[in-house]
Amino acid sequence: MISRRRLLRLTALTSAGALLPSCGASGFDEAARQTWRHATQVPDQPVALLRELVRYATLAANSHNTQPWRFALDAGASAIAIQPDLSRRTPAVDPDDHHLWVSLGCAAENLALAGAAFGRRAELEFDQRIHVIRMFLRPVAPVRSPLFTAIPQRQCTRAEYDGQALSIAELRALASTASGPGVEVMLLTDRARIDAVTEFVIEGNSAQMRDAAFMQELERWIRFSDREAVATRDGLFARSSGNPAAPRWLGSLLLRLFFTETAENGKYARQLRSSAGVAVFVARSAQPAQWLEVGRAYQRFALLAASLGIRNAFVNQPVEVPPLRAQFARWLGIGGMRPDLVVRFGRGPLMPPSLRRPIDAVIGGPRALQAGIGRRLNDAAA
Ligand SMILES: Cc1cc2nc3c(=O)[nH]c(=O)nc-3n(C[C@H](O)[C@H](O)[C@H](O)COP(=O)(O)O)c2cc1C
What we know:
Low-confidence stretches: 1-18
Order of helices and strands: HHHEEHEEHHEHHEHEHHEHEHHEH
CATH architecture: 3-Layer(aba) Sandwich
Number of helices: 15
Structural class: alpha+beta
Oligomer: single chain
Number of strands: 10
Distance between the termini: 68 Å
Bound molecules: flavin mononucleotide
């Protein structure tokens, strides 16, 4: 328990400027500019091309921004393998690695869209035995789609939106781009249904905030200051969620003091009230191969939204707490199927972006990953 005197000192400290404004000296703005950009030209060397495709893949949405992926390149075969980086799992929020596989699907979709823009059609296959996704790139005429163009503009925008409805044409376009093999999206736009989702979000949020393991894991992945975000280039950046930047010691203290169940539930209620609707992604079966497809579908949804000036943010609490997930599935009327993702959308302001690690930190990996490409080539040669 914090003493009254300490609280007063803390208040004085924060008003005296210990909460850090966005600070140029940290290099955050430059890092953000370097991260969220298009290639200036199409690389003409095979390895440079594959590296550029990996860079686009890493700009995908991913759970807690852990960037739980490794890539192996085979320039000779024009192929890229993607494998989970299990050192970046988040077992408290994602015990069965559902979000991890969805994140890899998001990355695969960005890679495929960038491949098309650079004149390579990506054929994806998933080897369940060794958990490797292989993307073989075949020469085709380049197609620079609106989804590709939107890659550097997309973000998960944890802000209040403007409360305005989207047009029927926009909703139709979002629904159609977000359906994929074995994946459907339900768009809930009437107020009563959005309010009902809000109740699930609040119940799930309360359960998570009372779970010490969940809170510890969350805190571990928060990057409280610009400096910390730039040093690690991963994690949940405080300012991206509308919180002030602070040194870690102070950020942790403020988290304990002000990140309360009541305050957070109120914030979620306001955010959902300000949203035009909620998208729920549902896959045919609950397996990694399908979770990859969910990730691909969500990434397309988010990119199309970005291209139309529509923001989105996850409110996944109803699908992250297992007993609540079952109730949520019953409420949705999807029988025994598992709801995968819950995402609110609408128009609103942009927030400061998150960062990504440099591609050299994610390229090359365990030998199994390198072998992952070779095995298919050997199979093809046999
Ligand atoms: C499978 C998955 C689950 C996610 N769950 C949440 C969530 O429950 N709440 C949230 O605020 N963001 C969630 N996110 C968003 C990530 O935190 C976000 O993608 C990451 O921090 C990178 O930021 P960016 O998408 O703006 O680039 C999720 C993302 C993915 C792919």
